[in-house]
C-alpha cells in the first residue's frame, strides 16, 4: 500500500519495488529505534554510535564512487565534508527558518556548495595527468582547513558554536537511504559502466568515445556533494564544529573504512564502516582504564589499514556485492 | 635591498630542508612509482631521533647527524621491506594507501611515545652572528646548515651519476621490468633508494629542528610541501627536486615577508596547480609517451 | 566520389625520429585496406594519428569530408571510428556483456536524471541495450560467455570481444591493429573468415594492420606497405608482393633478426 501511495499510478518493475520496500523497511526500523532511544529504552550511547556510523557510511560510499568505481585517488574528502559542515551550519544559524525548511536547505545547500567547489577544482585537476589528483585533493584538504582557521566570522580555530540541533539518527537514516538510492542507481547504469571502464582501461575508454574529463568530474562532483551532505548532518548533530575535525586525519579515517570494506562495492562501504566503528569502540572500552592507552587506538587504526592492504588488497568484500543492493538485470 | 638578501638567505635555508625531503620523494617515485606519503613522517622521526640523541646522550653535532641518518635509513629500509615490498606488483593504489597507513602509524606512535607537545632540539651549532657586507647578518649555524645540505646534494648527485649502484638505480627507474634481466638486484636497489631517501630526510629533520620546534604531526605539512616541490620540479628528477624546493621556499618566505603568513599555504597550493597546468610533468620532468 | 577517410601528407616525429613521414591514405566507403610493414615501421602510429591519440606535426586528416585533425580521441571516436588494439585493451573487471553495453553510451536514450531515478525510459533503454549488445555477442560467438569477466576469457575470445565492442559503436570505419597477432594458422584462417563476414554484414570500411602477409593479402583490395614511416608501395596484393622495394624491406628485416 505504502509503495502505491508513493509511486502513484505509474507502473513499476519488480526490481524497483523490491528496493523501495527495502528502504521503507529500513526507515521504519530506524524511526522505531529512534523512538525507543527517545523514551530511554535504548541507551543513548548506542543511538550515538548508529548515528555516527550512518554519517560515515555516506562519506565512505561517496568516496567509493571516486576511489573505487572511477579508480581515481582522491585524498581530500574531509575537506569537502568541512565545506558542507560550515555552509550547512551557516544556513541553519542565519536563515532563521523553521525546523523542516531549515533542515532541508542546510542539507541541500551544503551539498550544492561542496559540489560546486569540487566541480571547479575538478575542471583544473582533470586536465593534468598522472597522480596529481591525489596531490591536489590532499593539498586542497589542508588549505580548506587553513582558510577556515583564518576566518574570524566562523570562529577561526576555536570553531563555530550555537548550531541548532536538527540531526538525529532517523534523519541520518533518511539521508543514508537517499544516498544509497542515488549511488546504486548511477552505478548500475550507463554512468557506472563508463566510470568502471575508465578505471579498467582509460585509453580504451577514451577511444570508445568517452569524454574522460567530463565523466571524472561528474563523479568527483557527486562524491563531494555527498561529503558536504554528511558534513552538514554532522554539524547539526554535534551543534559545534571546528576546522581540526575536517583535516587530513579525518580523510585518513574515511580511507581506512573504505579500503577495509573494499573499493568498488557499495556493500563494502557499509561493512567497512560497521566493522571499523565496532572495533574502535571495543578498543576504547577495553583501554579505558588508562587514558594514555586510549591513544593506542590511533596507532592500531593505521595498522589495521596496512594489514588489510598486505593481506586482502580489495578489502573484506572484494568487488562482490550483496544481492539486495543489485537491481534486477534488465534485458536478460 | 639588505632585507631582500636577508630573506633570500632564509629562503635558501628553508629550501635546503625542503630539498632534503623532496629528494627522497622524488627518488622513491622514480624507482617504484610510489607517492610515499610516509616520507614526511620519516623526516619527523629523524628529527625526534636527533632530539633524543641530543638530549639523552649529549653527543656532538656531527655524531648526532650521522647516527640519526644511519638509524633513519634503517627505518626506511624496514618500512619498505615490511609494508611495501609485497605490494610492488599489486595495484598501485594499494601501495599508496599502505604508505598513507604507515605515515599515520608513525605519527601516532611518536605521539604516543613522546606526547603531543612541541619541543626544541637543544642548540648544537654555534649561533654566532656573522656580519657580511652592507649590514647583512647571518648566523653561523645557518651557513653551516646550508653548506652541509648542499654538500649532501652534491654527494647524492655524484653517487647517482658516477657510481655503479647509481647507474643501476637509474636503470631501475627507467624500466623496472627489464632490469632483472640485466643481472641487477632490484630489491637491493630499492632498499638503497629508501635508505638514501630516509637518511636525507633525517638530515633535513635535524636541520629543521635547529631553527624550529618539532612535534609529531610536523611531517604532514612539511612532507606535503616537499612533495609539491618535487612535483613542481618534475617528480623523479633529482635536479628537479632541488630546483622545485628552492622555488617553493622562495615564494613562501617572500609571501610571509611581504603579504601575510596566513597566505603561505594557499599560495603554495595555487603555485602547484598553476605549474601543473602549464607544465604537466614539472619543470625538469620528462613527458612519458602515451603507449597504445 | 568523396572518400570516407583521407590522410594528406601527415608527418609525426618523436624527438627527431620521424615515425611517420608525409604519409597519405585514402579509404573509400565499403573498402578493406591493409597496411603492412616490418616491426616499428610506423603502422600503429598511423592508427594513433587517425584516432587522435597523437596529434600530427603537419598534414591533415579528413573523415567524410570533415577535417578531424587535432580533435580529441573521444570526439573522433564518436564521429564513427572504432578500433582494436595490438595488445588487447578490454575492461577486465567488467563482464563480457558490460564491455559491449558500454559501447552504447553515445546512443542511450536516457539522461542523468533517468539513470538517477531508474525511470521507465531508463528501463526500456537498458532492455534495448541489453538485447542489442547480446546480438553483437551472439554474432561473434560470445553469447554464452556474457556473464564472465572479460579478463577470464581465453586470448582468442578476448580478441573477438574487442571486435564486438568496436562494432557496437556502429562505426563508419573499423581499425584492426594486428588482429592475428599471437594466433595459430587455424585461428588466423577463422579470423580471415570473420573479418570477411563483418565486411559483408555491416556498412563499414575496414583498415587493417598486420605484418603477416596472408591476412592482408587474402582480405584487402588494396595494400599499402610502409617502412621507416614512409609509404614504399601501394597496390593490389599481387602488385605489392612482386614489388622489389617490398621484398627488400622484408628481407632486410629478416637479415637483421638473423
Helices and strands in order:
The complex is a heterotrimer of chains A (332), B (292) and C (258).
Chain A: H1 2-7, H2 14-38, H3 44-69, H4 77-94, H5 99-125, H6 132-149, E1 160-161, H7 169-187, H8 190-200, H9 202-207, H10 212-238, E2 240-241, H11 248-261, H12 266-287, H13 291-294, H14 296-311
Antiparallel strand pairs in A: 1-2
Chain B: H1 2-32, H2 39-57, H3 61-84, H4 92-114, E1 129-131, E2 137-139, H5 140-162, H6 164-174, H7 186-211, H8 218-233, H9 238-258, H10 264-278
Antiparallel strand pairs in B: 1-2
Helix pairs in contact in B: 1-5, 1-7, 1-8, 1-9, 2-3, 2-4, 2-7, 2-8, 3-7, 5-6, 5-7, 6-7, 8-9, 8-10, 9-10
Chain C: E1 5-14, E2 17-27, E3 32-36, H1 43-50, E4 58-63, E5 66-67, H2 73-78, E6 81-83, H3 96-101, H4 112-117, H5 120-139, H6 155-167, E7 173-177, H7 185-201, E8 205-209, H8 213-219, E9 222-227, E10 230-235, H9 237-241, H10 244-257
Parallel strand pairs in C: 3-8, 3-9, 6-7, 7-8
Antiparallel strand pairs in C: 1-2, 1-4, 4-5, 9-10
Tell me the β content of chain C: 15-25%
Average pLDDT confidence of chain A is 89
Give the SSE string of chain C: EEEHEEHEHHHHEHEHEEHH
Strand order of the largest sheet of chain C: 6-7-8-3-9-10
The CATH topology of chain A turns out to be: ABC transporter involved in vitamin B12 uptake, BtuC
Secondary-structure-based class of chain C equals: alpha/beta
Task: Give the tally of structural domains of chain A.
Answer: 1
Helix proportion range of chain A = over 70%
Biggest interface: A-B, 44 and 40 residues
What's the CATH C level of chain A?
Mainly Alpha
**Strand adjacency order, main sheet of chain A:** 1-2
Uncertain spans of chain A, ≥5 residues at pLDDT below 50?
1-9
Tell me the radius of gyration of chain A.
20 Å
- How would you describe the shape of chain C? globular
Shape of chain A: globular
**What is the helix tally of chain C?**
10
Total strands of chain A: the figure is 2
- Tally of DSSP β-strands of chain C: 10
Uncertain residue ranges of chain C: none
Report Rg of chain C: 19 Å
Amino acid at each position: 500500500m505504502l509503495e502505491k501511495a508513493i509511486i502513484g499510478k505509474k507502473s513499476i518493475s519488480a526490481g524497483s519495488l523490491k528496493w523501495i520496500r527495502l528502504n521503507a523497511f529500513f526507515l521504519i526500523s530506524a524511526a522505531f529505534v529512534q523512538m525507543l532511544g527517545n523514551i530511554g529504552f535504548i541507551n543513548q550511547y548506542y543511538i550515538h554510535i548508529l548515528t555516527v556510523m550512518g554519517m560515515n557510511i555516506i562519506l565512505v560510499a561517496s568516496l567509493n564512487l571516486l576511489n573505487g568505481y572511477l579508480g581515481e585517488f582522491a585524498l581530500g574528502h574531509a575537506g569537502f565534508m568541512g565545506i558542507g559542515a560550515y555552509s550547512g551550519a551557516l544556513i541553519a544559524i542565519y536563515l532563521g527558518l523553521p525546523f523542516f525548511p531549515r533542515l532541508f536547505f542546510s542539507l541541500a545547500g551544503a551539498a550544492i556548495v561542496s559540489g560546486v567547489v569540487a566541480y571547479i577544482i575538478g575542471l583544473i585537476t582533470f586536465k593534468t595527468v598522472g597522480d596529481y589528483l591525489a596531490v591536489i585533493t590532499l593539498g586542497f584538504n589542508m588549505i580548506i582547513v587553513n582558510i577556515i582557521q583564518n576566518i574570524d566570522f566562523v570562529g577561526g580555530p576555536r570553531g563555530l558554536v550555537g548550531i541548532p540541533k536538527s540531526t538525529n539518527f532517523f534523519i541520518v537514516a533518511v539521508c543514508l537511504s537517499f544516498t544509497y538510492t542515488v549511488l546504486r542507481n548511477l552505478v548500475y547504469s550507463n554512468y557506472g559502466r563508463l566510470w568502471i571502464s575508465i578505471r579498467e582501461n582509460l585509453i580504451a575508454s577514451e577511444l570508445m568515445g568517452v569524454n574522460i574529463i567530463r565523466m571524472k568530474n561528474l563523479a568527483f562532483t557527486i562524491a563531494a556533494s555527498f561529503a558536504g551532505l554528511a558534513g552538514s548532518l554532522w554539524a547539526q548533530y554535534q551543534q559545534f564544529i571546528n576546522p581540526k575535525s575536517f583535516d587530513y586525519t579525518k580523510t585518513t579515517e574515511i580511507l581506512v573504512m573504505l579500503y577495509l570494506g573494499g573499493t568498488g562495492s557499495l556493500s563494502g562501504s557499509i561493512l567497512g564502516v560497521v566493522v571499523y566503528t565496532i572495533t574502535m569502540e571495543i578498543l576504547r572500552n577495553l583501554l579505558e582504564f588508562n587514558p594514555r592507552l586510549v591513544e593506542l587506538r590511533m596507532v592500531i587504526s593505521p595498522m589495521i589499514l596496512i594489514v588489510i592492504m598486505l593481506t586482502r588488497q580489495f578489502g573484506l568484500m572484494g568487488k562482490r556485492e550483496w544481492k539486495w543492493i543489485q537491481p534486477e538485470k534488465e534485458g536478460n | 635591498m639588505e632585507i631582500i638578501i636577508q630573506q633570500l638567505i632564509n629562503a635558501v635555508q628553508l629550501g635546503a630542508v625542503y630539498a632534503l625531503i623532496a629528494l627522497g620523494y622524488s627518488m622513491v617515485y622514480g624507482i617504484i612509482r610510489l607517492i610515499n606519503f610516509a616520507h614526511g613522517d620519516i623526516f619527523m622521526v629523524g628529527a625526534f631521533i636527533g632530539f633524543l640523541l641530543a638530549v639523552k646522550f649529549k653527543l656532538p653535532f656531527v655524531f648526532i647527524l650521522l647516527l640519526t641518518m644511519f638509524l633513519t635509513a634503517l627505518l626506511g629500509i624496514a618500512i619498505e621491506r615490511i609494508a611495501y615490498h609485497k605490494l610492488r606488483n599489486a595495484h598501485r593504489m594499494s601501495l599508496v594507501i599502505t604508505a598513507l597507513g604507515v605515515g599515520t602509524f608513525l605519527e601516532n606512535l611518536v605521539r604516543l611515545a613522546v606526547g603531543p607537545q612541541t619541543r626544541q632540539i637543544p642548540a648544537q651549532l654555534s649561533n654566532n652572528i656573522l656580519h657580511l657586507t652592507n649590514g647583512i647578518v647571518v648566523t653561523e649555524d645557518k651557513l653551516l646548515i646550508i653548506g652541509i645540505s648542499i654538500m649532501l646534494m652534491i654527494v647524492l648527485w655524484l653517487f647517482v651519476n658516477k657510481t655503479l649502484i647509481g647507474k643501476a638505480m637509474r636503470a631501475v627507474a627507467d624500466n623496472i621490468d627489464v632490469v632483472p634481466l640485466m643481472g641487477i638486484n632490484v630489491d637491493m636497489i630499492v632498499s638503497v633508494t629508501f635508505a638514501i631517501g630516509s637518511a636525507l630526510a633525517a638530515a633535513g629533520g635535524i636541520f629543521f629542528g635547529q631553527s624550529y620546534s618539532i612535534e609529531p604531526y610536523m611531517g604532514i605539512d612539511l612532507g606535503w610541501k616537499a612533495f609539491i616541490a618535487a612535483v613542481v620540479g618534475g617528480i623523479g628528477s633529482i635536479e628537479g627536486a632541488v630546483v622545485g624546493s628552492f622555488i617553493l621556499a622562495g615564494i613562501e618566505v617572500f609571501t610571509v615577508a611581504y603579504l601575510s603568513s596566513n597566505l603561505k599555504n594557499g599560495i603554495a597550493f595555487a603555485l602547484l596547480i598553476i605549474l601543473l597546468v602549464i607544465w604537466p610533468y614539472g619543470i625538469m620532468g620528462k613527458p612519458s609517451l602515451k603507449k597504445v | 566520389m568523396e572518400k570516407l577517410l583521407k590522410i594528406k601528407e601527415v608527418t609525426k616525429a618523436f624527438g627527431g625520429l620521424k615515425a611517420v613521414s608525409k604519409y597519405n591514405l585514402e579509404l573509400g566507403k565499403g573498402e578493406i585496406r591493409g597496411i603492412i610493414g616490418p616491426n616499428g615501421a610506423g603502422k600503429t602510429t598511423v592508427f594513433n594519428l587517425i584516432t587522435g591519440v597523437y596529434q600530427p606535426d603537419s598534414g591533415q586528416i579528413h573523415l567524410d569530408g570533415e577535417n578531424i585533425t587535432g580533435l580529441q580521441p573521444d570526439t573522433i571516436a564518436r564521429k564513427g571510428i572504432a578500433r582494436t588494439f595490438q595488445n588487447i585493451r578490454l575492461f577486465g573487471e567488467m563482464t563480457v556483456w558490460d564491455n559491449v553495453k558500454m559501447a552504447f553510451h553515445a546512443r542511450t536514450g536516457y539522461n542523468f536524471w533517468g539513470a538517477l531515478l531508474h525511470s521507465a525510459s531508463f528501463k526500456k533503454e537498458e532492455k534495448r541495450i541489453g538485447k542489442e549488445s547480446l546480438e553483437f555477442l551472439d554474432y561473434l560467438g560470445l553469447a554464452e560467455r556474457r556473464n564472465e569477466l572479460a579478463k577470464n576469457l581465453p586470448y582468442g575470445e578476448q580478441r573477438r570481444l574487442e571486435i564486438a565492442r568496436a562494432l557496437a559503436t556502429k562505426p563508419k570505419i573499423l581499425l584492426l591493429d594486428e588482429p592475428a597477432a599471437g594466433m595459430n594458422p587455424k585461428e588466423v584462417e577463422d579470423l580471415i573468415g570473420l573479418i570477411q563476414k563483418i565486411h559483408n554484414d555491416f556498412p563499414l570500411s575496414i583498415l587493417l594492420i598486420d605484418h603477416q602477409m596472408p591476412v592482408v593479402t587474402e582480405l584487402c583490395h588494396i595494400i599499402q606497405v610502409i617502412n621507416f614511416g614512409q609509404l614504399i608501395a601501394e597496390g593490389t596484393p599481387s602488385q605489392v608482393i612482386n614489388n622489389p622495394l617490398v621484398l627488400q624491406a622484408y628481407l632486410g628485416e629478416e637479415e637483421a633478426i638473423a
